[in-house]
Design a protein that fits this description.
The chain is of the alpha/beta class. The protein has two domains: 87 residues, no CATH class; 268 residues, Alpha/Beta hydrolase fold, catalytic domain (Rossmann fold, 3-Layer(aba) Sandwich), CATH 3.40.50. It has eleven helices and eight strands. Helix 8 crosses helix 9. The protein is globular and about 70 Å long. The two termini are 40 Å apart.
């Protein structure tokens, strides 16, 4: 009985924190409401599996005591809350479609992929047999801090779009193995050449990290053709602080076809100086197209900050700026296979089609997301 009650109460806390997290006043690198509510917000099915495993032994043996009825009632509440999280994730697709329609018109809506059902049962598994990962290629002189992985489909290709992904971590932690792996594997299976990079994190400043991202983009331009990539169709993406670095690199002379910022932080890093420390420092009319996706319930980077960046960029750029705010979404929304993550990946594919034309694979048909 005690085990079932502990499971019920733990999941009740996590689900409530995911549904309605207390919003802080300012963006910050970490807070308790994110730690408690983030993962179950994206993976309510795993929460349901935990609930069943922790309570079934008690519930299948009914007892007349108050404790049994209390456990049964809490289990029912947990089921409803987890179902609410799963249903709420479906709101991401309409929000993304509306954002694309606002910029590109009705024809610009993302096309729906066809994810395999088992991806939602095993959301932490990103590996695919039709994609190979070439590991730990060196793109600069800084040892382990200047390495990248290449994800590429096993079929021969040429002229494929290239995605360079920059991980998050508040500029002080993180790895190329964390974040966006569902997107990297899926895009590679659909014909892209995808790069996930590490950059220096210790005893360096923002300028050094920005230089690493620029070096990785230069490496992609030189070496991606050897994997079938098109050096004239390079997109740069990032999550959280990685979105900051990706945006600043693209806005300061690094030529890319488009920028994808996911749950990005775009504020200042360190004191103001002669070199840019924020994407806000380098907005200009010649900026590339941007896709900015943010969670309405992001407790680490508040949506108001991301919206302010998109509005400022839209005010000066001659290229499209798509800003999508996803209801119910938290930070790190691309870590696992989920309905929300699949909708975001569909939007990235459509953005590349619109920004890169015929260079993006899958134009005209809904691609498989398995």
């Amino acid at each position: 009985m005690n085990g079932a009650m502990n499971t019920d109460l733990t999941l009740l806390l996590l689900a409530v924190m995911a549904l309605r997290p207390p919003m802080p006043r300012h963006s910050s690198p970490f807070n308790l409401q994110f730690a408690l509510g983030w993962w179950i917000n994206e993976m309510p099915y795993l929460g349901l599996a935990w609930l069943v495993a922790g309570t079934i032994g008690t519930l299948v043996h009914p007892r007349s005591g108050l404790g049994w009825w209390l456990a049964a009632g809490l289990t029912g509440v947990d089921v409803l809350l987890l179902a609410g999280l799963a249903v709420r994730a479906r709101s991401a697709r309409p929000a993304l479609s509306e954002a694309f329609r606002a910029v590109y018109g009705p024809a610009g809506e993302p096309r729906r992929g066809r994810p395999a059902w088992w991806r939602f049962v095993l959301p932490i598994v990103s590996w695919r047999p039709d994609v190979r990962r070439v590991r730990n290629l060196r793109y600069g002189p800084a040892g382990r801090g200047n390495r990248l992985d290449v994800y590429v489909g096993r079929r021969d290709r040429s002229g494929a779009p290239v995605l360079v992904h920059v991980h998050g971590g508040g500029f002080v932690m993180g790895s190329k193995m964390l974040g966006a792996r569902p997107m990297l594997y899926r895009l590679a299976a659909q014909g892209w050449v995808c790069l996930s990079i590490d950059y220096r994190l210790f005893r360096v400043g923002y300028a050094d990290q920005l230089a690493d991202v620029r070096a990785a983009l230069a490496w992609a331009r030189t070496h991606a053709p050897g994997y079938g990539g098109n050096p004239d169709a390079i997109f740069v993406a990032g999550g959280s602080s990685g979105a900051h670095l990706a945006a600043t690199a693209a806005l300061t002379g690094t030529e890319v076809r488009g920028v994808i910022g996911l749950y990005g932080y775009y504020g200042r890093v360190g004191p103001r100086g002669p070199a840019p420390t924020s994407p806000h420092d380098c907005l200009h009319p010649g900026a590339p197209p941007f896709l900015v996706v943010h969670g309405a319930l992001d407790t680490l980077v508040l949506r108001h900050d991301a919206r302010a960046f998109a509005d400022a960029l839209r005010g000066v750029s001659r290229q499209p700026v798509v800003y999508a705010e996803l209801p119910g979404a938290q930070h790190n929304l691309d870590f696992f296979h989920s309905l929300r993550a699949q909708s975001v990946i569909d939007a990235v594919v459509r953005f590349a089609e619109l920004a890169g034309g015929s260079h993006a694979p899958g134009s005209g048909t809904a691609a498989s997301a398995s």
